[in-house]
Design a protein that fits this description.
154 residues; mainly alpha; Arc Repressor Mutant, subunit A; two-stranded antiparallel sheet; 6 helices; DNA-binding
């Protein structure tokens, strides 16, 4: 027997809704935190993904951040114009364009990372270390489940 049924699926009990709203609220706060850098939270998400090597190409970055490839290309154009990202042709396959941070991009990414750390520490005030660790583990488990889930039957 599943957890949800017609008696308990409401926005404030829906995992999907709660995760979405938490993400939207956090991104809005981070947009304000990065305003003086001329960056948005979405820009920073791209920069930090490149920083950690999660997304060596624009297509990989779009997959990593669950964005449209066209929109991601336009965002990389913007970050490149700001002098934060550079595109380099792959020596082994000239069709592949590798993304990397410029020194300015690396510095901006790390400054914003420090702001993200401060924000999350503020938002999690009153949470125990165990509560935070448990939440992270549960979200990682949910992500893994969703990554391998078959399409839902109608």
């Amino acid at each position: 027997m599943g957890f949800y049924d017609t008696t308990n699926l409401y926005p404030d009990s829906s995992i999907g809704y709660l995760v979405k709203v938490c993400n939207q609220l956090g991104m809005a706060h981070l947009d304000r935190a990065f305003a003086d850098e001329g960056l948005s939270a979405v820009h920073w998400s791209a920069l930090i993904s490149i920083h950690f090597g999660r997304a060596p190409t624009c297509a990989a970055l779009a997959r990593d951040l669950a964005h449209d490839k066209g929109a991601m290309t336009r965002m990389i154009d913007t970050l490149e114009q700001k002098g934060l990202v550079r595109r380099l042709r792959n020596d082994d396959d000239r069709r592949v364009i590798q993304l990397s941070l410029t020194p300015e991009g690396e510095a901006a990414t790390l400054r914003c990372r420090d702001r993200v750390i401060a924000c999350w520490n503020e938002w999690l005030t009153g949470w125990t270390h165990d509560e935070i660790t448990t939440l992270i583990a549960q979200l990682q488990r949910l992500r893994a489940t969703l990554e391998t889930a078959a399409p839902c039957a109608a």
